Fold this sequence. Notes:
- The protein is α+β, with helices and mostly antiparallel strands.
- 22% of the residues lie in helices and 24% in strands.
- The strands form six sheets. Strands 7, 8, 9, 12, 13 and 14 form a six-stranded antiparallel sheet that branches.
- The longest helix has 19 residues, at 323-341.
- It binds flavin-adenine dinucleotide.
Amino acid sequence: MSASTGQEETHNIVTARTAVSLAALTTLQLGGPANVIDADNDRDFRDIVELVKPWASPPVCLGWGSNVLVADRGTDLPVLLMRTTGISARNQDDQVLLTVQAGHSLPDLVDYCRAENLIGIETLAGVPGTVGAMPIQNVGAYGQETADTLTEVVAWDWQTQQQVTLTAADCALGHRTSRFKRSHRWSILQVTFALTRSHLSAPITYRELATALDVPLDSRLPLTDIADAVIAVRRRKGMVLDPSDPDNRSAGSIFLGPVIDAHQAETLQRKGGSPHTYNDGHTRIGSSWLLRAAGYELGQEITPGVRVSSKHHTLVADTGATAAGFAAASSTLRAHVHQATGITLTFEPDLIGHEPAYTELTQPLTTTNPTSPHAFPDRSKAVS
Ligand SMILES: Cc1cc2nc3c(=O)[nH]c(=O)nc-3n(C[C@H](O)[C@H](O)[C@H](O)COP(=O)(O)OP(=O)(O)OC[C@H]3O[C@@H](n4cnc5c(N)ncnc54)[C@H](O)[C@@H]3O)c2cc1C
């Protein structure tokens, strides 16, 4: 099927909108055109399957586009815009099972749980995106992650051409990863979570959050207090989407927090870092701290229109930015951190379409100047 005809192609009640700018559908506001199919409550997914068949490749699903970098030339693959909404609740033993449609807003789900006194996802307050995208990278923040509460995923498997139900174990959820990450084989249609009813939050396990609330670790507080505190912390870092914020053209953290060993953790802690040990037993250091320690300044422009956020060490886009420039800027940061520390950062957002600059961003880095596996320039010593 051709990439753009400038006309609508109709199949049953489902149509593909052609030559749609994906920039308008992503939070970085970058990326070229694609054929877009709206998957919403009015459309039967089987009709979408029929419409997609001629491409002979699985489509790219898009929620809010808050964790993708789309090539300047867009993509030839059809893009499914996941816009189905709805939450259904049922009691099971002492838990409440929530089945949520893929296009439903995650912030709305967090608000729903807050209103219903359901605990388990309260520290995900302020994370943008859709519920269907949560399993893709096991979305997590401030001590909770999707894996803590997810029980089941219903998806369309484009390889076997059938609807499947995957258990949490089938999803292979890991730290910001799963069997779905960087695969377009499955379109997630709905997600089920098991939550517990309580007006007190789950115990706080994330030190930064406990510090912000001025309570010891493992404290339990009213749900509203937790969600408000998380949003306040996130807002200070520009990690909530806010159209009035000049740092709003963001994909959140652009690198995963790398795993470090006990010796590196001790060294980085001495230099002011805050390593955190996650549910999988691995200790990680925030990539933003590494960028700061490597000498990057807030607001610093890296490539035309691409700069470090003015609040937090991640990249954001301004007027003049391109996907190629964003990828090149990310590669520069990655190479510099590697040179300074020996640590290789992994780009977090999913790369959609083809861009020559993607190659450098994803290739292994070889140690050219291994002064020390965790040495920083002197200027990093005061980093806190
Ligand atoms: C300001 C900001 C802060 C952020 N903070 C966090 C954070 O604290 N923790 C965190 O984990 N992430 C964070 N993110 C990243 C982002 O919010 C999450 O990855 C979120 O799950 C993306 O949802 P989305 O709907 O925008 O997905 P998209 O960006 O649209 O898609 C992301 C990936 O998921 C796939 N996908 C989306 N929906 C489906 C579906 N239904 N079926 C199959 N595949 C699908 C896409 O193809 C793509 O590969 C942040 C992003 C921003 C901009």
